[in-house]
Amino acid sequence: MLFFTALVPIALLIIMIGALKTSPVYASLAALASSTAAALLFFRQKPVLILLSAAEGSAMALWPIIIVIAAAIFSYNYISETGRMETVKKIILAFSSEKSIQVLLLAWGLGNFLEGIAGYGTAVAIPAGIMTALGFNPFYSAVICLLANTVSTALGAVGIPAMTLALMTNLDLSTLTAFIAFQLLPVTLLIPFLLVIVNERSLKKALRFFPEAAAGSFGFASVNLLSALFIGPQLATILASISGTVFIIGASLLRKAAAGKNTTEIPCGSTAVPMKKIFDAVFVYVLVLLFIALASPLFPAVRGYLDSFSTEFKFYPESSGKIIRFYWISTPGVLIALAVFFSSILSGDGLSLPFLILIRTAGKLGKTSLTIISLVASATIMRYSGMIEALASGTAEITGSLYPLFSPFVGALGTFLTGSDTSSCILFGEFQKDVALSLGISGYWLASANIAGATAGKMIAPQSIAIAAAAAGIGGREGDLFHYLLPFCFVYLLILGLIIYFFNYSSALFSLFF
Predict the structure, then answer these.
(1) Which pLDDT value is given to residue 268?
(2) Please, what sign has the CA dihedral across residues 498, 504, 506, 512?
């Protein structure tokens, strides 16, 4: 009874957004109302504790999620309204005028790099905004960036999801990281090809760009696996994204050379773009990358100082409530906004222009903000009331020895509810390990399956979809995005489930790798 009751908010989201194509605002409010009712009536949660759970979720939605969305769109609006986007377009065209190669460079290369150093929606918002400005269909810009922002999230944000999983399960981080990279290897190799196919909307047309897709696939996957095996999670996605980008550019240059074209030609018009104009155009994003990198664990002294500007608060008073820490400077959203203001001052635009653009940007994010606040508040209520635990336990009981096949679906559920791989690990990491031990399976194997599945859930999480829709300027089409991406998510999870199930029970084959 509790299992099926806990399913109601999720079912409402899927039916309202996917089948009925209801506005995400109304769907998220319905999920919040149903999770509140279930927590009160069936899980016997006190009204005051439900309110405090919702308050915690709302605060976490605002900081850092919504602030990141606002800042990423703000940076895009700034370079657009100052005319710098035209130069950015010409710079990207310098590498290739082919849109499928641009997809690989922006969604797979830049997107994964942003995921590696920041996360929190930047890897979707910034590439989607740039792609739309370059003339891509806004809907497919959002789809492509959501598909790309999957495998890289497991070891993204400087390894935070994997480190959180190791902490929650008390498993060795190095071993766990290796398992994660191995489980994700097949889908990592497939995603770049999928991005090209979606962009071309035709397998026949996409075949022409498979060499660049293969280069980006191999460049990312090989370095990601090697980094996971020998370095750790902190640098895996960063190094892999750089490697993938270099491989894509190399393959593109080889294509031009084979066709007898001048590989140094910049197809951006009859007049060369002055270096000063190029510098002005990219300066914002240079500062964004610099600020985020300096504030990351890669520079512990700087990170420690910036993290000192923070406030701790505990909304939920019970022992299960966690202490929430709000970082007032080192959160990616603030760093992106600061980069825009610094860029504006140094380029001579002053402070008033970006300030006005920021106000206009924030004013257009009302529905997106309400959607995300409702979703995170609903997930927080479900967590503290025991609804999520009921869902996970029920799944394990129903599936029995087949559970490894479904274990990535549990991880995906966590991300669908919270929009975060890290949160999925917090919700289900220890549970997956306990189920593994009860079935006589390696705890590492199913704990890794949780984070692998979480990467799939990222593409259909309502929060992620809201970010993509806002960045691409297609607010109101979130239901269409969900409906389009759901089959991709299911196949992705099915591949992971089969890998996790058969490799686990094929001990001879498994021992070849571990």
Answers:
(1) 44
(2) positive
Task: Give the count of beta carbons closer than 10 Å to the beta carbon of residue 134.
Answer: 17
Return the half-sphere exposure (C-beta side, CA atoms, 13 A cut-off) of residue 158. 13
Alpha-carbon distance of 56 to 486, in angstroms, equals: 29
CA distances from 323 to 50, 59, 313 (A): 17, 12, 6
Q: Which parts of the chain have pLDDT scores under 70?
A: 18, 118, 120, 158, 261-273, 297, 505-514
Cis peptide bond prior to 186, omega within 30° of 0: no
**pTM of the model as a whole:** 0.75
Residues 6 or more apart in contact with residue 323 via CB below 8 angstroms:
312, 313, 314
The dihedral through the CA atoms of 289, 327, 239, 96 has a sign that is negative
The whole domain housing 482 covers 2-513
| Whole-number pLDDT of residue 309 | 92
Taking alpha carbons only, the member of 184, 95, 102 closest to residue 140 is 102
What is the structure's pLDDT at 273?
66
Domain count, the chain: 1
Contact yes or no for 138/229 (Cβ under 8 A): no
Q: What is the pLDDT at residue 292?
A: 76
* pLDDT at position 126: 83
Buried-state track 175-197, b at ≥16 Cβ within 10 A, e below 16? ebbbbbbbbbbebbbbbbbbbbb
**Alpha carbons 57 and 61: distance in angstroms, whole number:** 6
Helix axes 67-81, 352-363, angle to 10 degrees: 130
**DSSP 3-state of 311:** strand
Residues 6 or more apart whose Cβ sits within 8 Å of residue 190: 217
**The tokens of 66 are what?**
């919504």
Burial of 238 (0-12, 13-18, 19+ CB in 10 A): buried
CA distance 202 to 471: 25
Residue 270 pLDDT? 40
Q: What percent of the chain has pLDDT over 70?
A: 94
